[in-house]
Structures are given as structure tokens and as C-alpha cells.
Amino acid sequence: MGMMKQAFLPILSSFLLFACSTPPEPGSLSVSDAWVRAVPPASGITAAYMTILNDSEVADTLVSVTCDVSRVVEMHAVEVTSEGAMRMHRLKSIPVDAGGRLTLAPGGEHLMLIGLQQPMQVGVYVPLKMTFRKSGTQLVMARIRKE
Amino acid sequence: MRDTETHMVRFGRSVSLMLVLLLFACGVDSPPVEEVDGDVQAVEIPEPNRYEFGSDFVLTDQDGKPFDTASLRGSAVLLFFGYTHCPDACPTTLSRLNRVYDLLGEEGGDVRTVYVTVDVARDTSRRLKEYLSYYGLPIVGLTGTQEEVDFAAGEYGAYHKVSDEVSEAGPLFDHTLLVYLIDAEGVLRYLFQPGESPEVMAGVIGKVLKERR
């Protein structure tokens, strides 16, 4: 047990530190306020939202997202027409301007988690592996919220 | 054995403490920033209208039984069109309605929500029941044949069409996101836009409910 404890704690803490995306070094991309909407267990689909901050002088692009709890993750934008009709557009990628802030939010750009492999239980974290063209891949922990 | 248990408890405690500290440090657990000035009165509540469109229709409810919206007389009704495979807009609307009912409190007892699916192929009565029961709202889920749903949507000018976007999610629908407020006499009184706040919605509904007293 003692051995395990000694070995486990540092691993756990480094994982946790990594997981909650601590403020990045300048010149990098950081993700904050990531969350996934809790949906009925009968639903096989949900959405993830977050803020992506590009604290660098180079524009970057979100090119792909994968996630263990869903079969596939797609990027979508939502357009609401003046008549109140909603249209979704699938995106191949999402640009993040140099020094810019990109907000993925309900009714706007979002990540669509399709083919959920487990119920979306409130409070649980969903790991999202997000790949940016320039800055590479980072793991983002998105908390499941009912809202 | 006891020693191990104590060890485990301590270990568990230190891990939990660390988790708490880390979550705190990262601000993951902090509540979403909301502009709450404690000043709900400051929100201007628009006057309800009286529209001349929107009539009753008959569809099939989540128990597989025929449901005539004329049976809702005496209650205010929040009507909207959506589908259960909708990942963003429809769950957002349901969440807003949850908040509206919270704000209405007891008055919410006089308000029924009607959810009409625009995806008749996938949204069976059974699926609507499973899906909607999660939200704990006084809600009726309605489905029907394509013709029946087209008629209901047409009465309210609710646009709905299978999107040409190809997604792993299967068919996506372009559809109207308005929430229609119908009064206890069956008159359409207000069209809530997708961006309308729950506070404004509850305010307008409150005005319509008060007319009866």
C-alpha cells in the first residue's frame, strides 16, 4: 500500500493538474469552462461547450476532437434566421485568431458528441482530446452539467 | 488489516482534499458567471399580443393515445417544435423552460408544455416518453404522421425541413425555435424568440395568467 501510495499520488496529481488546464505559458492555446450538457439516457447525442483562448501571435485551427464516451465528435455552427428558424452547419475546422478568444456556446458553435456510450451523469468529467493544427493535441476535461 | 483500512481512509482523504483544492484552484467548480443584480424588476416585460393564427390539432401523445390540443383549455400552454436527436437547440429550449417553471413557482401549475416532434420517423411515442420524462416538466410529447405534424406546424408557421448537412448524427432538421404562448382560451399570445431570457418568458406568462383573475 505504501509503495502504491507513493507511486500513485504524483501520477494522480500530475494528471489532475494537466486535466484542469492550468494557465498556459504565453504563446499557447488554453481551454476553460468546458462543459457537456446532461441529456436523457434515452438520448444518444449531446453537445460540449467551452472557451478557447489563443494567447499567441499565431492563428490556430481546431481540426479534430475525439472522445472516449462518444462514437464520434463533430463540429457544428448554428444559425438562427430572422424568422426564428435554426440551421446547423457542420464545420470541418474552427479557426482561433491570434490573440483571440473563441467561445463555443449553446445556440452557436459547438462540439456534437454523437453515439454516446454511457449515460451523461451530472458532475462527471468527459475527456475531450482536441487537436489544433499548430499547437497540437491537448486533453480537456469537460464537466457534465444539467442546464 | 485495521492498519490498512486507516491507511486507505487517509489516502482517500488526501486524494479528496487534493481534488477539492485542485478543482478550486482551476475554478472548475465555480458557478457560471451570471449578471445577477438581484434586480428582476429591471427587466422590462413586454405586453402579450393576440395573434389570429394558430389553431388546435390532434396528434399522438407519449402514451400512444390521441391528443387534441383543445383539451388544454383552462391552462396556459407553451408549444414548441423540436426533435430528440437535436443536440444543441432543443435541449437548450428545454433547459430554459425548466428555468421558466422555477421562476413561475406555484403559478407554473397552470402552465402546460407541448413538445411536437418534427422527426416523426425516429420520435415514436415511446421514445418521446423516455426522453421527456428526464426533464420532470408538465410536458406532453406529441408525434404523428408526417401529414399530421406538417398540419400542426403549418398552423403555427413553424418551419421544419430535413437539413442537407451530412452528419454521423443521422438526419438533422432545420426548424423554428420559437416557443408559442397560448392562453387558457386557446388564443396565441406571444412568440418567444430563441434568445429570450427565462425571466422575460416567466414575466409574459405571468401577465397572461393574471388576466384570468
Describe the overall structure:
The complex is a heterodimer of chains A (about 150) and B (about 210). With about 150 residues, chain A is mainly beta. Chain A has a single domain (about 5-145), classed as PCu(A)C copper chaperone (Immunoglobulin-like), CATH 2.60.40.1890. In chain A, about 10% of the residues lie in helices and about 55% in strands. Chain A is built from one helix and ten strands; from the N terminus they run αββββββββββ. In chain A, strands 1, 2, 3, 4, 5, 6, 7, 8, 9 and 10 form a ten-stranded mixed β-sheet that branches. The radius of gyration of chain A is 17 Å and the shape is globular. The N and C termini of chain A lie far apart (about 40 Å). The model of chain A is unreliable at about 1-15 (pLDDT under 50). Chain B is of the alpha/beta class. Chain B has a single domain (about 5-210), classed as Glutaredoxin. Chain B has five helices and nine strands. In chain B, helix 2 packs across helix 5. Chain B is globular. At the A-B interface, helix 1, strand 1, strand 2, strand 4 and strand 5 of A face helix 1, helix 2, helix 3 and strand 7 of B.
CATH architecture of chain B: 3-Layer(aba) Sandwich
CATH C-level category of chain B = Alpha Beta
Radius of gyration of chain A, taken over Cα atoms and rounded to an integer in Å: 17 Å
- The CATH topology of chain B comes to Glutaredoxin
Mean pLDDT of chain B: 85
Q: What percent strand of chain B? A: 15-25%
Count structural domains of chain B: 1
> How many distinct beta strands of chain B?
9
First-residue to last-residue Cα separation of chain A: 41 Å
Number of helices of chain B: 5
Q: Domains counted in the coordinates of chain A: how many?
A: 1
The total of beta strands of chain A comes to 10
Could you describe the largest sheet of chain A, including whether it forms a barrel?
A: 10 strands, mixed
Low-confidence stretches of chain A: 1-17
Largest sheet of chain B: 5 strands, mixed
Question: Helical region count of chain A?
Answer: 1
Radius of gyration of chain B: 22 Å
